[in-house]
Amino acid sequence: xxxxxxxxxxxxxxxxxxxxxxxxxxxxxxxxxxxxxxxxxxxxxxxxxxxxxxxxxxxxxxxxxxxxxxxxxxxxxxxxxxxxxxxxxxxxxxxxxxxxxxxxxxxxxxxxxxxxxxxxxxxxxxxxxxxxxxxxxxxxxxxxxxxxxxxxxxxxxxxxxxxxxxxxxxxxxxxxxxxxxxxxxxxxxxxxxxxxxxxxxxxxxxxxxxxxxxxxxxxxxxxxxxxxxxxxxxxxxxxxxxxxxxxxxxxxxxxxxxxxxxxxxxxxxxxxxxxxxxxxxxxxxxxxxxxxxxxxxxxxxxxxxxxxxxxxxxxxxxxxxxxxxxxxxxxxxxxxxxxxxxxxxxxxxxxxxxxxxxxxxxxxxxxxxxxxxxxxxxxxxxxxxxxxxxxxxxxxxxxxxxxxxxxxxxxxxxxxxxxxxxxxxxxxxxxxxxxxxxxxxxxxxxxxxxxxxxxxxxxxxxxx
Length: 464
Known about the structure:
By secondary structure, this protein is of the alpha/beta class. The protein has a domain at 4-94 and 118-175: Rossmann fold (3-Layer(aba) Sandwich), CATH 3.40.50. 42% of the residues lie in helices and 17% in strands. A 6-stranded parallel β-sheet has the order 3-2-1-4-5-6. Strands 7, 8, 9, 10, 12 and 13 form a 6-stranded antiparallel β-sheet that branches. It has a two-stranded parallel ribbon with strand order 11-14. Strand 8 (215-223) and strand 9 (226-227) form a beta hairpin. Helix 5 (120-144) crosses helix 14 (398-416).
């Protein structure tokens, strides 16, 4: 495709269009892309933030490799959704102050969390806030854009992708996550080192993905037709004790301190279960008892991300977005590591691509609950998003993953049915919470519900 008339027109509705994280990445990737002619309609509860992002998106036009995407803010969800081909959902469930409570209250009860947005006490309460929101968005999509393809970027991804389906069972939705990219980058480094030249990027690494979001594993790896699993096993064994990073970070780099890891947890999970773990250590550690990794996070080479730092980082991103929207700075349209634009192009063009995504389990992973949202590869094409049969997790690992998947389904069931009494037993059964005596766990749950109560339906506030 060399001419603007060859570009594929696509209408994208962005819910959470004031985003300071995912929206700028999408803008940069659309500017880099030569296949799509996109109109992006930005909807946000904060209309001014959506208007700022529309102005910021327009700044990418002069540097676009293809037809510049067009951006406009919408005052209503219905306006954004009308006629959409693609819907992107990227919202913050609550406020950073709520997230601070998700982390801080469990910490006072002796439970550390590195992220607190997926499982554990933080992920559970975040889901209580968010499930009604995502179900409402699903219903709105059913009313205004029932044939749209829907990408959810919001955590806890497994539960919230499921909530979209509860809101509109016929929805064509998937959850998109970049965590598997971390293992793929390691494999590309291994392949390039063996070749003696930088021949491969993470996009050249093929993996068979199986698990649930942020607790993902791979049992096959290939680069240019070569089986890379033996080389990865050797790499993990060589670095299991010290961990590995491609380049040592600057000790003053706060982002790296709080968001980076040395893959020691990944390598140890491979040792324990015989299968490479794919997600980042900060997420993987939260699926297991705190005594396994979180109680000694520094020893395992990863940090516990303080919400105070996230707030400062968000303020810096807001200032940068405002400067770009005003024209005080120029955009840097380099392509991100995200796969969303490739997925959109495949859906709109019919030229297939394969990505790891989160979809309801219809047999793509044996041994995990039917209907639970699981993460495997899927084929994006004119036929939609078709999951790839991934196989089965190792016998020792499968019960751990299955228990989390079942808990996520039960949580979604309880919230959608307003079954408040079912919530505390599920909360207490999480591996990070289970070691607490019931009375102490109930006290913590009560404190967390009270702290974030404004965002939780009245029918669920008696849950503790």
